[in-house]
Amino acid sequence: MSKKIIIIDDESHIRMLLEQSLEDLEDEGVAISTASNGKDGLELILKEKPDLVFCDVMMPHLNGYEVCTAVKQEHKLSAVYFILLTARGQEADREKGLAAGADMYMTKPFDPEEVVTRASEILGIEV
Questions:
Q1: Rounded CA gap, 10 and 72, in Å?
Q2: How far is C-alpha 9 from the geometric centre of its chain's CA atoms?
Q3: How large is the angle between the packed helices 112-123 and 12-26, nearest 10 degrees?
Q4: What pLDDT digit, counting tens, does each position of 34-48 carry?
């Protein structure tokens, strides 16, 4: 069974940067899907049941905290590793993300190499 990553961000250049950063994992059988808002992202997560989600915090329809809470608590998908991405790096924001059930909190701008390293570790893939 292949591993799955979902990227949810309303900024197309961020989605593209993440996709390009993670494309080497596709050679290892990882499927990458994207969504441009929280509502579509949540629907995609419920349909695909990914192993890893990169999700922006500030988005239309549902914000990242709401998506994370829905995935982890309402839909009982606690096995999904959830990384919140945000330009807001205050400790209170990080705590709010962790309280929503996020496994990790990354601030923008992020290092593409760190994204690949984290994703590889989480999915148990050597790149």
A1: 21
A2: 9
A3: 50
A4: 999 999 999 999 999
Give me the sheet containing 4-8, strands edge to edge: 31-35, 4-8, 52-56, 81-86, 104-107
CA atoms of 113 and 89, how far apart (whole Å): 19
Tokens 């695909």 belong to residue: 48
Q: Please name each of the domains of the chain with its CATH number.
A: 4-123 (3.40.50.2300)
Pairing of strands 81-86, 31-35: unpaired
The CA-based dihedral angle spanning residues 18, 19, 24, 29, taken in that order and rounded to the nearest 10 degrees = 120
User: What would the mean pLDDT of 15-43 be, rounded to a whole number?
Assistant: 96
